[in-house]
Amino acid sequence: MSTVPEITVVTDIRHPRLRYVLDIVGNDLGYRFRFFNDRSVFGSPAPRYGVRYGGGGERCLPHHPLLSGKSVAPADTALTYLDGMPVFCATENGHDLLACIFFALSRYEEYESFQPDAHGRFPAAASHAQRCGYLRRPMVREWTAAIGRRLRQWFPDLPVPERPPFVFRPTYDIDLLWAYRHRGWRGMASLVRDALTGHTQRALARLRSPPAEDAYFTLPRLHALHLQHALTPAYFWLLADGQDRRDPNPYPIPPEQIRHMRELDAHAILGIHPGYRSAELPEVMAGERQRMQEILGREVTASRQHFLRFRLPATFRQLEAAGITDEYSMGYADEVGWRAGTNLPYPWYDLERERSTSLTIHPFAAMDVTLRSYLGLSAQDAGAVIVELATRVGKYGGDFPLLWHNSSFAPEFGWYGWWEAYVGLVGQLSSLQDQSPD
Asked: Which residues, in sequence order, are CB contacts of 204 under 8 Å at separation 6+?
């Protein structure tokens, strides 16, 4: 059994932010960091970090006050480039890449005042990464790799980290399992609207389509596609109680849908998709989790917010309190890229309480609605953007999650050619899993 290399960091900083970010970096590089505040007791050199050790010199990591618990001033986020890599958090002896990593992962900027979008969300346009042009790069992985290179220059005996395998993770939000069935008064209103606006064929389909041919019922096709490429998908089910018009799922949950959920549970990760009001109302989130647990007969610990609506730290605290351990909302609705700078799952850090939590965040790279509706891309152009994102991540390895909807393949609703393009995209992303490390 190989031993994890241990690196002693000489520092006078004892803030949990530093310990948190070094745990993240260590997990990625395959190293373990420990702390000591007196270099004199060690016979061999050790990297230095902190107020007393930040004056430059050999094996000194630049120290920014952010990791001592201080605030970030606007000037601290001024971007420059170092060997083609965006960096900020400047110090007298360089840029503190550990502080850059913490700024990205903690979502520091989302705790500050901002102009929310129409759904109360933090928009990509307000983010440092989008404004500075690096949102589509997995910057936390790049900064971590740069730290690893520096450590190996100082300590040549350190092993080069093994790149984790690239793993494509398809994930789906199920807002509506059927376009035409179990719609109640909403279905009747849609039927009338289709008839009045000239969508005659769609109106007839609402009346005549059998369940298996429903425009949104794509589970069998998706299941076959996942089996073909040996993929384990995740499905997030909207089980709201019908109190908000932005939650379109049928309620009570139809027995036919319950049957499909139970069948799918043996082949995929299933989680809740908390309704629109859940970002403000903890009882909504807890109630929907309980509803799904009763359907599946087991504990449910995975979740992704409907409309990607969450506010930090309140929503994530509510998820923790509701028993959720894995959260999948970390991405933007209005742009593709890496909201937290990484593709790897990581523990959420509660910035107000200054603690690392047991809630694991699973970032995603892109959403179908973002590509088509926000960015106005064709199916083919959307695929090219996703492959570019995947290629950038492939250099570092790890998960590559996408967010799709079961309903985003229906030509009747404007998704012409998206199923065919998605099949090809899944094949491309799956083939990346078989490529050998760089």
From this structure: none
SS3 167: strand
Reduce the DSSP state of residue 432 to 3 states and report it: helix
**pLDDT tens for residues 100-140?**
999 999 999 999 999 999 999 999 999 999 999 999 999 99
Buried b (16+ CB within 10 A) or exposed e, 5-29: bebbbbbbbeeebbbbbbebbbebb
CA distance 273 to 308: 9
Strands of the sheet containing 166-174, edge to edge, are 346-350, 355-361, 326-327, 302-303, 269-272, 234-237, 166-174, 398-405
22-58: pLDDT as tens digits: 999 999 999 999 988 765 544 456 899 987 665 556 7
What is residue 123's DSSP assignment? P
Q: Are 370 and 364 in contact (CB under 8 A)?
A: no
Contacts (Cβ under 8 Å, ≥6 apart) of 9: 22, 33, 34, 35, 36, 46, 47, 48, 49, 61
> Measured between alpha carbons, how far is 414 from 177 in angstroms, rounded to an integer?
17
Task: Tell if the pTM clears 0.85, that is, is over it.
Answer: yes
- 6 contacts: CB under 8 Å, gap ≥ 6: 31, 32, 33, 34
CA distance 72 to 250: 46
Among the residue ranges 179-188, 277-286, 424-433, the one predicted with the least confidence is 179-188
Helix or strand or coil: residue 277? helix
User: 298 burial class (0-12, 13-18, 19+ CB within 10 angstroms)?
Assistant: exposed
Query: Which residues have C-beta within 8 Å of that of residue 391, sequence separation ≥ 6?
Result: 432
Structure tokens of 162? 């093994």
pLDDT at residue 181 is higher than 50 = yes
How far apart are alpha carbons 84 and 104 in whole angstroms?
19
CB 251 within 8 A of CB 262: no
Q: Of the candidates 258, 181, 253, which has an alpha carbon nearest to the alpha carbon of residue 212?
A: 181
Q: Is 23 in a helix, a strand, or coil?
A: helix
The count of other CB atoms within 10 Å of the CB of residue 341 is 26
In which region does residue 421 sit, left (phi positive, over 0), alpha (psi from -120 to 50) or beta (all else)?
Answer: alpha
Read off φ and ψ for residue 322, nearest 5 degrees: -80, 0
Give the integer Cα–Cα distance in Å for 136 and 385.
Answer: 10
Instruction: Spell out where 57-124 has E strands.
Output: 80-82, 85-87, 90-91, 94-95
- Run of H or E including 401: strand 398-405
